[in-house]
Amino acid sequence: MRFSSSGASFLPFLPSLSGYTQELFRADDQTIKACSELAHLLPGKVFLEDTPEYAKEQTSYWLAQQRSLHPQCHVAPSSAAEVSAVIRVTTANEARFAIKSGGHTTVAGASNIAQGITVDLSRLSSVEPSDNGSTAWLGVGCTWLDVYRDPKVADAGLAVAGARVGMVGVGGYVLGGGFSWYSGRYGWTCDAVLEFEVVLANGEILRVNTHEHPDLFWALKGGGSNFGIVTRIKMPVFEQEDMYSSKAWYEQEYLDGVLSAIEAFNSKALDPDANLFMTIVYDRMYQLFRNVIMFVNTGANTSSSAFLDFSFPTLENSTSITDMGGVSASLDDYYNKPFRKEKFTLTFYNSAALMSRIAAIFRQHARVMHLDEKGPIAMTFQPLTASHLSAGNNALGFSAADGPLILFSLEVYWSSPSKDEYMRVHLQRIEAIMRQEAQNQGLLHPFIYLNYAARWQRPFESYGARNLKRLTAIREQYDPRRVFKDLQPGSVHL
Ligand SMILES: Cc1cc2nc3c(=O)[nH]c(=O)nc-3n(C[C@H](O)[C@H](O)[C@H](O)COP(=O)(O)OP(=O)(O)OC[C@H]3O[C@@H](n4cnc5c(N)ncnc54)[C@H](O)[C@@H]3O)c2cc1C
């Protein structure tokens, strides 16, 4: 253990929603005391800034903004009992904290905290299939690639319906919903969850499923970090077939045809194993837009009829037969860039005409944004088929009547902290223009996906007044002191 509490002095704690602005302040006495107590309680699991473990942990965040937040200590419990000890000590000292599973949130300050305590769950990384191989307990600190490549899963030819990109953490992804290559068949990943193990604010460890604490079970499926620290998640495991994956770069002139094909793909939903998303990236060097679609079929079928409408001329095309690990690792390379980033999301009814307008607005603004030399700007349309939306009993607020939808997101990457405010203001403006456009056409769906939402967006309100009220009541029941609201200032609150 390398722990020392020297060098920190008292300054009053100033609560702020934007976690990273707190960097200006030094840790308060309670936080220093809590780190010290935790170091005695959990030897070798508490790290201060001068340690290599701390430095390594800081680089594990997807957002550069989160990498530059410096907590007073990182604490890395390796069991639910240790998480319970961490939450008891932290709350007894009224110290501020952040919870981190994979560190891939899009909200700066949601899973790291300047001068507070970061609860790093990466040591909760076991993958434990049941004896008959039909279910598995997943530690929340696993990345999805850890799960797909775990020998007990991969060598047995098994799969779990997790994230499409390997480096994403199990914990945050499931608590926000979770959009998988298997969503056409099984819905949101949270819909498939069989059980959660959760540590409440008072340190109690609960097993939460359809029979035990069913209200909390529902709330955790989309409710984020408002109820407790989830330590393990039990998921179904199933046999994996070969996975077909293909990327096609379409010429600009075929954009409207491609968007019509996406609308048809989504409304016909011919094949529950067929998935796609379309990204438009602005290439600043050549000052042009590139339209790429990723097609994946989770069944062995390499020529799904669902993809037939996409036979437009392409600039480039690549195809492979692989598995969940292969597809998710291939996407890691693209996304694993240590930039500053900002992202927002909207949800639209299924319409090629609206997608075309949204793409036009994107093109107009992407050109004029003063972008960093290397940082891309990109937007993505993802079909949400009716079966995906209506598969489960979750807090997200969908019904089958919502029909097929389009999940939209826009993200921008840059390097200099001096551009943070500029990027936020600009993105917020683009979001307002796009929202208005969709609203004018009567094609705006209220859903804001927690896992893609910007700090300024209100995902829980988008679940509908009834669900928000129910979530709040469940929060009052399981966290009456509002520990996860008041002491976790950077997270996304109800
Ligand atoms: C490159 C990339 C690819 C992505 N691909 C997909 C995709 O295919 N499908 C999809 O649906 N989403 C995807 N996402 C979005 C992703 O689901 C969210 O960013 C998610 O929050 C990441 O989870 P995490 O554990 O890595 O994040 P973290 O940053 O660790 O946590 C995110 C939030 O959840 C809270 N939290 C984390 N763990 C716990 C826990 N155990 N208990 C209580 N609260 C917790 C944190 O406090 C924080 O508020 C992707 C994101 C990135 C950056």
From TrEMBL:
Q: Which UniProt keywords apply?
A: FAD, Flavoprotein, Oxidoreductase
Q: Which SUPFAM superfamilies match?
A: FAD-binding/transporter-associated domain-like (SSF56176)
Pfam families assigned to the protein according to its UniProt record, in alphabetical order: BBE, FAD_binding_4
Q: Does the keyword Flavoprotein apply?
A: yes
Q: Does the keyword Oxidoreductase apply?
A: yes
What molecular function does GO assign, one term? oxidoreductase activity
Determine the domain of life of the protein's source. Answer: Eukaryota
In the record, the note on similarity to other proteins reads: Belongs to the oxygen-dependent FAD-linked oxidoreductase family.
| Name this polypeptide is given | FAD-binding domain-containing protein
Which species is listed as the source? Glonium stellatum
